[in-house]
Amino acid sequence: MRLDNAALIFPAIRQRRWVNAFRVSATLTEPVDPAVLQQAVTELMPRFPSMYVRLRTGVFWYYLEELDKPPVVREDYAYPLTLMQEKELRSCCLRVMYFRNRVAVEFFHSLTDGTGGMVYLKTLTARYLSIRHGVEIPAEEGVLDWQAAPEARELEDSFVRYSNGVTLNDHEPDALRLKGSYEPNFLHLTTGVVPTGALLEAAHRFGATVTVFLAAVMAACILDWQAERCPNRRKRKPVKVTIPINLRRLYGSHTLRNFVLTLNPGVDPRMGEYSLSELCRRMAAQLAAEGTPQQMAGRIAANVNPQQIPLIRAVPLPIKNVVMRIIYSQRGESKGCINLSNLGAVRLPAPMCDYVRRLEFIIGPQRSYPNNCSVASFGGETCINMIRNIRESELERRFFSRLVELGVPVSIESNLNNHPLKGAES
């Protein structure tokens, strides 16, 4: 199977410092039975052929090859999103793990995005609960019928289908780069658990969606931080938050593969000061203007068109890799400061709700962003996961403190106890 258009870049630019993966997890009301989980993973294999794959290297392109046996369930260890080495990717591009009450699945990003990953997790958890407790769970709310054959629309490359062929010329200035003391072999994860109702109320006070509100709060924290470090306003750089847009909602796609593009709403601090209300209005307006089906189709075309040029298709893969790395370093992440990805309110079929306490979504740090933020809501709670590969926790402190100031209670959890240098920071 060919990689979809968004997936092409990930194997080409992977490196030891970049995890290039994401995690979705379900915390149950009881300890996980690994034997039952393994049975569920095995039974889902025919239903998700685009997930049970290994990465292969061709002459001209990378491609995905179906597995002949399911991955082995393993106990979770170390910290979330440990590096997927090339050897592992050649064996399987996903991990299914358990720890106490938690089922977690980690995906190499060439397989799918957060929406597709959550569909797999929901279906896996539903099958697990059916085997373990004999409950009948309907195929709804993103849970697929595990006995049905996969549909063609689930396996399509929707980027190719919905490209309008007209490239959108999009030139925007580079954004501020967040920096810190790189820490190898560990990712710091700080989770802010907030009441979804309080978060919605705060967002509505500013006339914003939760995504816009959180992005504006993040931008405000970065603006303040930059102002403290750079008193000369004319030397400050634009502050923009990269927000992935789920294109399925725009085009009605049902693909389980990648179908996301990013936008970078933000402000230029050289133009003056911005209140949180102004940040919410400006970022909402930018997302509304740039996130239309017509504009996004032009962005899709900008990515798809070069891939279809015969001369480029005939270029050997090693040369393509070099070119893609150069392009990505210049354009891929230079336009934003931090990624904020919100899966929104995740729903489950009613019979599952008595067995599932929490659903979470975690994206690893980007190739050049030391920080990343991912959000998911379920059961009246919103989990805001902030992850970093640097020692400094300043951004998390500012962000969660600002939410508390805005009337949103935050309960903090951290994986610092698992750090090899436990106690090195507060």
Radius of gyration: 21 Å
What is the CATH domain class of the largest domain? Alpha Beta
CATH homologous superfamily caption of the largest domain: Nonribosomal peptide synthetase, condensation domain
CATH level-two architecture of the largest domain? 2-Layer Sandwich
The major beta sheet can be summarized as: 8 strands, mixed
Amino- and carboxy-terminal Cα gap: 47 Å
Count of extended strands: 15
Annotation keywords:
426 residues; alpha+beta; Chloramphenicol Acetyltransferase; 2 domains; 8-stranded mixed beta sheet; 5-stranded mixed beta sheet; 15 helices; 15 strands; 21% strand
Topology:
Elements: H1 9-13, E1 21-28, H2 34-43, E2 53-57, E3 62-66, E4 74-75, H3 86-89, E5 94-99, E6 102-108, H4 114-133, H5 152-155, H6 158-162, E7 188-195, H7 196-205, H8 210-229, E8 239-246, H9 248-251, E9 260-263, E10 266-267, H10 276-290, H11 293-307, H12 310-313, H13 317-332, E11 338-345, H14 350-353, E12 356-363, E13 371-378, E14 381-388, H15 394-405, E15 411-414
Parallel strand pairs: 4-5, 8-11, 11-13
Antiparallel strand pairs: 1-6, 1-12, 2-3, 5-6, 7-14, 7-15, 8-9, 8-10, 13-14
Helix pairs in contact: 2-4, 7-8, 8-10, 8-15
Notes on the structure:
This protein is α+β, with helices and mostly antiparallel strands. The protein contains 15 helices and 15 strands. The chain folds into two domains: 9-161, 2-Layer Sandwich (Chloramphenicol Acetyltransferase), CATH 3.30.559; 172-292 and 335-418, Nonribosomal peptide synthetase, condensation domain (Chloramphenicol Acetyltransferase, 2-Layer Sandwich), CATH 3.30.559.30. Helix 7 crosses helix 8, helix 8 (210-229) crosses helix 10 (276-290) and helix 8 packs across helix 15.
